[in-house]
Amino acid sequence: MTRRLLLAAFIVGAAVLAFIFWPRFEGAPSRPLAEEALVGEARQGGLTVALPEAVGNVEISDARLPGQPLVLIDPGHGGVDGGATGLGGRLVEKRLTLAMAREVRERLVERGRVRTALTRDGDDRLTLEQRAAIARRIGADLFVSIHMDSAPNPEAVGVTLYALSDVASSEEAADLAAAEARRIGPVVSTDDSLVEALLTDLALREQMEASHAFARRVLRRARGSVPLRPTPVQSANFHVLRRAQVPGILVEAGYLTNQADAERLAEAEGRATLVRALADAIEADLATRQAR
Ligand SMILES: [Zn+2]
């Protein structure tokens, strides 16, 4: 009798599991096996990962030792989306974010403690969804999106570090997240929305806590050498951070509409202090999480 009950329970259980996981298998053809293998290899060392859709290929630079953690740096905007401008149109956000992302990568590669990739290494236009998808596909451990601000008030100056949270920390943070939401392109893969559905609430809480911890880490390194906003760490529900599904922050590196910030951000020399703070914080953050 008991055996029959056990058998019945087993059959019902198997049916339930099949029901839950069936859509995954149905979605499988959109993600060929070859790509899965590439992503697996990408975890081992430096190589180029071919990505589907209009994302292009992402180069992952090697660390000195194999299997080191991987940071994905995301230069904001690109292509027809230039972002903010400054100094009478001489400064364009998309160019400066790319320059700065490359500088952070250069420092990380020099030191060889972590592996590094950029969401774009040219003037490509990527949707926010595509940026987040790259983080998931290459198995990034940390995500850093670089932006530069603009404000009607030319006195607005300094760096803001935005972490991920459900509730915005200020009206300004809420506005920024809302502006971001208006820029979200089409969600390209149905496979990915399923992944998000499977992501538990607990994982999201952990992602948010790690995002805040990383923002504070950058702040500790930037304080004293970089001009900061009065409340330098803010938070809001940023689509790109949430969907990346790894801890990450959005860095607003300064105001292109402020004379001092614009001059600081225009040249590599001026950007160097923030670049150093970011690179050091990235290494420290990945080292602690790897040690756990
Ligand atoms: Zn921006």
UniProtKB/TrEMBL annotation:
Q: Kindly give the CDD domains that the UniProt entry links to this protein.
A: MurNAc-LAA
Q: Name one Pfam family in it.
A: Amidase_3
Q: Which reaction does it catalyse?
A: Hydrolyzes the link between N-acetylmuramoyl residues and L-amino acid residues in certain cell-wall glycopeptides
The first-level EC class reads hydrolase
Q: Name one GO molecular function term.
A: N-acetylmuramoyl-L-alanine amidase activity
MurNAc-LAA domain location is 132-283
SMART domains from the entry? Ami_3
Q: Name one GO biological process term.
A: peptidoglycan catabolic process
Q: Which GO terms describe its cellular component?
A: outer membrane-bounded periplasmic space
UniProt keyword annotation of Hydrolase present: yes
Q: What is its EC number?
A: 3.5.1.28
> Is Hydrolase set as a keyword in this record?
yes
Q: Which domain of life is it from?
A: Bacteria
UniProt keywords (A-Z) are: Hydrolase
Q: Which InterPro entries match?
A: MurNAc-LAA_cat, N-acetylmuramoyl_amidase_3
- This protein is called N-acetylmuramoyl-L-alanine amidase
